[in-house]
Amino acid sequence: MGKKLWLFGLLMLALLIFVACSDKDSEGDAEDTNPGKAETGDENDRTLTIAIGADMVTFDVHDHINTSTEAIHVNMFNYLVKRDNETGEIVPDLAESFENIDDYTWEFKLKEGVTFHNGDELTSADVKYSLERVAYGEELRDYTNYNQIKEVEIIDDYTFRIITHEPEPVLLNRISRIASGILPSKYIEENGFDHFLENPIGTGPFQFVEWVRDDRIVFEVYDDYFGGKNPDWDKLVFRIIPENSTRVSELLTGGVDIAVNVPPADWERVENHEGTYLAQETSNRTLMIFLRSTEGYPTSDQRVREALDLAIDNGAIVESLLGGAGVPTITRVAPGNFGFAEHLYDTYNYDPERAKELLEEAGYPDGFEMTFHSPRGRYLQDAEIAEMVAGMWAQIGVTANIEFMEWSNFVELRNAKENKDAYLLGLGNSMFDAANALDYYSATRFEGETDYRNDELEELLAAAMSNMDPKERSEQYVRAQEIIAEDVAHIVLHQESINIGVSERINYTPTMDEMIYVETITKK
Amino acid sequence: MNYFIKRVLEIIPVLFIISFIVFVLVFVAGDPVALLLPEDAPEEAVETLRTSLGLDDPFYVQYGRYVVNMLQGDFGDSFRYGQDAMSLVLERLPATLELAIASILVAIMIAIPLGIWSSTKKNSSIDLVATGAAVLGKAMPNFWLGIMLILLFSVTLDMLPVSGRGSFSHLILPAITLGTGIAAEMTRLIRSSMLETLSQDYIRTAKSKGLRTGIVVYKHAFRNTLVPVVTIIALQTSTLIGGTLITETVFAWPGIGQLLIQAVNTRDMAIVQACVMVIAFFVIVMNLIADLLYQVLDPRIRYK
Amino acid sequence: MSQLLEVKGLKKSFDVTRGLIKRKKQYLHAVNDVSFSVQKGEVLGIVGESGCGKSTLGNLIIQLLEPTEGEIIFDGVDLRKLPPEQLRKKREDIQMVFQDPFSSLNPRKRVFDIIAEPLKTHGSYNKVELEHEVLQLMDVVGLNRSYLNRYPHEFSGGQRQRIGIARAIALKPKLIICDEPVSALDVSIQSQILNLLKKLQKELQLTYIFIAHGLPAVKHVSDRIAVMYLGKIVELTTKENLFTNPMHPYTEGLLSAIPIPDPTARKDERRLLEGDIPNPVNPPTGCAFHTRCPYKTELCERVEPEFTEKRDGHFTACHHPLKEGKGIISQHEKY
Amino acid sequence: MNDILLEVKQLKTYFFTEDGIVPAVDDVSFNIHKGETVAIVGESGSGKSVTSLSIMRLIEEPGKIVGGEINFEGINLNKVPRMKMREIRGNRIAMVFQEPLTSLNPVFTVGNQLAESIKLHQKKSKKEAREIGIEMLRKVGIARPDKVYDQYPHALSGGMRQRVMIAMALSCSPKLLIADEPTTALDVTIQAQILRLMRDLIKELDTSILLITHDLGVVAEMADTVVVMYGGQVVEKADVFTLFKEPKHPYTKGLMDSSPKIHEWNEELVSIPGTVPSPFEFPIGCKFADRCPHVMNKCKEEIPSLIEIRKGQEVRCWLHSEKVVDLE
Amino acid sequence: MPDSLPMQNNLVKNSKWKRWLKLLLRSKTGTVGLLIVLTIVFVAIFAPWLAPYEHSVIDPLNTHKPPFWMEGGDMANVLGTDNLGRDILSRIIYGSQVSLLVGISSVVLAGVIGVLVGLFAGYFGGFLDAFFMRLADSFLAIPNILLALVMLGVFGPGLMTLILVLGVTNWVQYARIIRGEVLSIKERDFVRAAKTIGVKNRNIIFSHLYPNVISSFIVVATLSVASTIILESSLSFLGLGIQPPQVSWGTILSDGRDYLATSWWLATFPGLAITIAVLGIIFLGDWLRDVMDPRSVK
């Protein structure tokens, strides 16, 4: 029997080794790129490892709406134009120059000598293919952000025009964000899109090596990058580590150089740890409480909404739950966005006494009971914030029954328009334009869900939508934000922070758009 | 042989029932479309997508289509990845298997000596400590243990890598995390099974022959205990795979567990279906193997 | 005496087919063409070694098993043809005493519940009547009345068997099948139970089918004895005949194998049966006993002997029945 | 006498249960001479099996031998180190158990189990052990022993298994064979075969037997000397002829009367009233007092001692001790 | 008759309760287990009176306060406070309610289904049996955490859903155990005796089989209360367990896991509570198994 038992053990062991080995084969040279300890070894020294929380979704740049996926894509694809994170201006990237010809037409000139990772040169045909694919592809997830484009007209290899259906003031914003990456049309036509998905190529500073799903995405530097070969990094590895504490532990032990989404609990640890520091930046994401203005809900009364807003001490939330990282605000449009209203930013209304008065005026001297939906684990400290808000409302006599929801159920609830008095939601704005942000206050979009309506606002928004005069358009948006603030259409809590743990051996400053531009990451 | 064929045939209705259960769940789960599109997608876009995915058809049509496709090993494309669900699942299977097998080995290495040891010293302080340790192993939630192990062995002691899959050292912590819980159950079962075996007449016979205690315990008793132990290991497959869900998340282990959790969170039902079917199939096959091993290990069954 | 039970050509086979390829149906003929009858007030003993089918026979008669073939005519009715509900009612007339006093009593029930169950099932008694009946039954089988509310585990084997007997006689059945009622008991207790069973049989004019694996227990209570071997009755006659003039060589072997509690009677020349009982799935051809029979001829290997009445009231299935006086008790010792 | 092989002197084996101490064997003494067959008779709970296990030192928790001597070939088994005891077990003293099915390990072949003690005690190689093993199987009357050698116990019939057990026990030519109810689980025709086999073999091998049984028939067939036990004590001890001719203890008599007399016609069986009490409920005095037809007041108060009433017959009963006193 | 060890029939004179008490005191672990379980039940029932604070009251100025023996801690919050300034002791005390409720109700639900299925399938056999056993095999092949995960993902987490889901996923083990027992018990002579008496099937099932299988159920059920508590915490880890403001040990533990390195007390005390509870329940269950095993006590 001894023999049989040993045999059994050996078989199990053999199976283990087999499984382990068979998999290593498929990993190819992943073994080499395995960071292990990032500080050790010459080769590792030129490898940058970044820990992210969720896997990339796809290499189909047009078929995802995922910020963290785009944060990876920006390193291997390029947009025609990009937003300068310092100034907020739109500057050329693949394009050499651009020009607004009329309300409907923009003309672009491409840089010459830009090559894809397979050596093909970038031409207008690639741009036409890329933009029209998403502008016409109803099944693509980014379709609604690009179907404003009517056509891409090729003038010559390096010149083309983008023609829109309507006057489109934010066209440049549109094509400097998710789904704006330019794809290699020839490569795709020759090999098919599925082949592209498996072996994607772009024009970016890094080229694709492999993607082990839920584990890692590996890139290597592209020598012929039109912006010059990256001087610091030969290899770029994104590792997927969903559990917060694990990600932080990896950072602390040197397993990764950068860990995104460090929870507030670990900020001090990362900051104080020898060899790491915490890099913070305000994001373009604002946390809000959507209130229901539908007839019959207490929150349909502006005074109630205002009371609820006044009851919340945004400063306390930011201080105690976010460790001071985050900016209390009254408007959703953040600095760096087109249409930013400075007087509504970095401030908040807090006056519980007045709130009680308002409630009494509105006919709720003893408060009322309401339902408050909140996602959990979606935004920084979302559940905690919801609980604290409910606690603050309790101070003015409003009982908010919080119902936490798992994300997909929460989305479902909203889609079915079964949301009750209030829900918590954080919204980003990849366009960096007030149009995108204020769209949430238009009456038709959220009929049955929030039912907020202000006719003056409707007109303003409609006018701004196709106003090609930037100055006037900006004023329109500032006015719109004032109306919204007076109405307390929604309660705006604060602008979230981006919290990234970084190894001391590198310099990195996160950017507001939550993209991870490896070009901005340098060795110390 | 006859028995084997019978057991194999039994798998068919079981897989069928499982597919039905999963399909009903998915059907009830409703519409993934909302999650597929941006939050501000217009109504028509939602409708178009819904129709193109065949989600407008009545239940029996959808089920029929599902069964026909399933028989061809096709669970549809993942909404999230836009790729064939089954191949995505199979891609992860090796990672999960590696973790599962390593965990079983860890569990065996802990449980067999501990179980035997405590059974031969019944009610002694050793037994008490071993039983206590086993219960403790079961009482600790997996994720908690995993995080603690990382903090201790990786962060504080800097001995082992924190997470990910790769070298052998990457495997150690997750295998211990997952193996401990299973070892706990196994220890208890081996102990009670050993106790029962040790009270059998043939043990007395063996002792009456003047054999050393070691031979009596390890040859005569343990060999008989092996039969239930194999069954336990097989039955634990299910728990084990369940445990990988948690362990894989904690250790960023790129296996089925992570894929599945993501899929559930994003209502990526093709993946969920494929995952459940693959896992169920695996569990069933393990049980089948255990059944066959049973026959090898226990001649009584052969002579029945 | 009138006939109470007649069993005609009763057969029971179990499917024990194995193997996938070359699938040959294999049956274990546990009871193979058995016929006999039992008169009212009679005790019929059935003996045989393990695997001879005696317990199966008992279970067939009481309808715990479904026969493959044959008739069981009880009280003029073929039990096999009764619809389920009528059969259930009929059950009050046939009862059973089981072998294992530990497993035959529900451990979660009190003595009262156990003995009262048949009464509750087939009669309508109020609480007082029921208790009265049960207490009387306890008296009859010699159980102390104070045990009424105790649980089976508080009793010894002998006392448990008394409870089982009380349950069996509660409905005053016409026939009781005793399935090895004493083989699990200590020697000194065996005789108590045998005496009790005998006493009850006389007092209540009961009819027994008494199944046992050894002749000693059967001898004491039976009027007639049937000897079974490999699913068949090989000899059936009165007790006196069997012990003085057995006809079947198997009976002779059975008798002589019994150790006699008298050291002076040690006889090394005793004829012992050789070999084991053959596998019942593949019984030998011809006379099933021929593999162990000291008298076997070529005929025995080929032809199965018929079960016929060889002398007055003495049935046997043997080509070469023994001469008179081969028993262990000589004729003149009789009474 | 010099040819005493085993001397059990005032053996006491108690079980220390949580409900109290159970004196399962209480002051038991007897001798076994070379070549002699001694039978211990008694019902369940009489302590006969515990006696045999005590001799083998196989008493397990919570049981413990608390007193007495077991002298085997001049060695006190109660005192020898465990190592030494293991050398005696299976080699000088062997044992056959009641249930041949459960007493054989189901997952090893007959040969494996048979060879085990041959290899251990006779220091034989695997191949030699196989030859000896097969020879032993032939000796116990197994046809085609080389085939049976490689079979698993479950493939064998009950009688065959018991033959294997006997072969195993006798494989090292022990001086003493302890047979604990060796035929109880067998059919009567097989029992007769096994008893005859044992008788033939011990004659051949010059082995003594300690036979544990409840069946007086078996005793009468096999034993030279009989020890009757009740409630952990020896109540009567005599040579087999004396005992069956003139049983003195009321329990011995009761036992004989209640056994069915297969070879004579008698309708009424005399039975011992009552049941064997639980170990905690034995009377203070004579353990049989509650069931004894001749019980006297004295019986309930004081335990009688085992007294030799005539040469070779000892009884533990007040009836007879009185007589002895009277005689003197 | 074999000479069985002379230890049976030794408890004749004790009443049932005395017997149990005696058996309990005899086992140290059993006593400890029962005491732990009784304490937890007591705490759960009287939580509102025992807890120093309401479990959901937040105090932004008093967060991450360590337990009293550490620097910065005091007796106002004996076990410290969490990231929202809630009193950990109070949360654990209240958490016992939900944890026990989930554990016990889901086991009872699963038990009712499982026992009924086991009894009927085992007793009647045939198609009914084949069907339920294939169904059971199917459920067994899906790890229960997986099934729970998918079901909770579909139906949305919540206390009632959780109980229902765990009930539905766990019935199988009871059904199989009960069926197994029924298969062996129905061959026992007392059931055959009931048949020969002519007792109706329904009565055989409920008055003969049920009382004899229920003890195995109780043993397994006890142990699965423990595993349910752990399962609930695992589901909380995945975000699908009990949702706040309801509080269970699992949610406290899983919420506190981000703070294991900084404010260790957030996750350690609920972890300890789970460990102790599970320990107690397993000890109790083991003891129940020992005393309810018909072989151990006659």
Automatic annotation (TrEMBL), chain A:
Pfam family, one: SBP_bac_5
Keyword Transport: yes
Signal peptide: 1-22
Superkingdom of origin organism: Bacteria
Domain Solute-binding protein family: 89-443
Record's keyword terms, sorted: Signal, Transport
Location of region: Disordered: 25-44
Family in the record: Belongs to the bacterial solute-binding protein 5 family.
Listed name of the protein: ABC transporter substrate-binding protein
Native source organism of the sequence: Oceanobacillus luteolus
From TrEMBL, chain C:
Domain ABC transporter, first and last residues per copy: 5-255
SMART domains per the UniProt record, alphabetical: AAA (SM00382)
Annotated signal sequence range: none
InterPro entries the UniProt entry points to: AAA+_ATPase, ABC_transp_ATP-bind, ABC_transporter-like_ATP-bd, ABC_transporter-like_CS, Oligopep_ABC_C, P-loop_NTPase
GO MF term list: ATP binding
SUPFAM superfamilies listed in its UniProt record: P-loop containing nucleoside triphosphate hydrolases (SSF52540)
Keywords: ATP-binding, Nucleotide-binding, Transport
Keyword ATP-binding: yes
Family per similarity comment: Belongs to the ABC transporter superfamily.
Designated name of the protein: ABC transporter ATP-binding protein
Organism name: Oceanobacillus luteolus
Upper classification of the organism: Bacteria, Bacillati, Bacillota, Bacilli, Bacillales
UniProtKB/TrEMBL annotation, chain D:
PROSITE patterns: ABC_TRANSPORTER_1, ABC_TRANSPORTER_2
Sample GO molecular function, one term: ATP binding
Record Pfam families: ABC_tran (PF00005), oligo_HPY (PF08352)
Membrane topology: Peripheral membrane protein
Domain named ABC transporter: residues: 6-256
CDD domains assigned to the protein according to its UniProt record, in alphabetical order: ABC_NikE_OppD_transporters
Stored Gene3D superfamilies: P-loop containing nucleotide triphosphate hydrolases (3.40.50.300)
Family stated for the protein in its record: Belongs to the ABC transporter superfamily.
Compartments where located: Cell membrane
Superkingdom of the source species: Bacteria
Principal subcellular localisation of the protein: membrane
InterPro entries from the UniProt entry: AAA+_ATPase, ABC_Ni/Peptide_Import, ABC_transporter-like_ATP-bd, ABC_transporter-like_CS, Oligopep_ABC_C, P-loop_NTPase
Membrane-spanning intervals of the chain: none
Name recorded for this polypeptide: ABC transporter ATP-binding protein
Alphabetic keyword roster: ATP-binding, Cell membrane, Membrane, Nucleotide-binding, Transport
TrEMBL record, chain E:
Identification of the protein by name: ABC transporter permease
Domain ABC transmembrane type-1: 96-285
Family of this protein: Belongs to the binding-protein-dependent transport system permease family.
Subcellular location: Cell membrane
Domain of life of the source: Bacteria
Annotated membrane topology: Multi-pass membrane protein
Spans traversing the lipid bilayer: 30-51, 100-125, 145-169, 209-231, 264-288
Keyword list, A-Z: Cell membrane, Membrane, Transmembrane, Transmembrane helix, Transport
Organism: Oceanobacillus luteolus
